[in-house]
Amino acid sequence: QVQLVESGGGLVQAGGSLRISCVASGRGFSSYAMGWFRQAPGKGREFVAGFSRSRTYYVDSVKGRFTISRDDAKNTVDLQMNSLKPGDTAVYYCAVNRGTSLEVGNMDYWGKGTLVTVSS
Q1: b or e along 29-42 (b: 16 or more beta carbons within 10 Å of the residue's beta carbon)?
Q2: pLDDT per residue as tens digits for the range 27-85
């Protein structure tokens, strides 16, 4: 059973930075798609950033501000978030797909999430 544990969330002022991390248990993650998703209050869950087929992907709203990184030896995936905006406030989830998809509905495993709050 794959387990994902996120950490690093918190409260930050607009324009600030935060780094969140995800540690995965198990093996074989180097070939899996892994990503970060978020869910703001009253909204659906959306893709933020991810790795698939050795490429990185970002939703347009975070390009140039967020950077995803991955360490397969440690089974970790981090998200460095800079120039944060109040609109980035959400619960951020780490997720894994045993294939190559990074679509919300196709992810096989999810963490419990970490809350990021950006104050104005």
Answers
A1: beebbbbbbbeeee
A2: 777 789 999 999 999 999 999 999 999 899 999 999 999 999 999 889 999 999 999 99
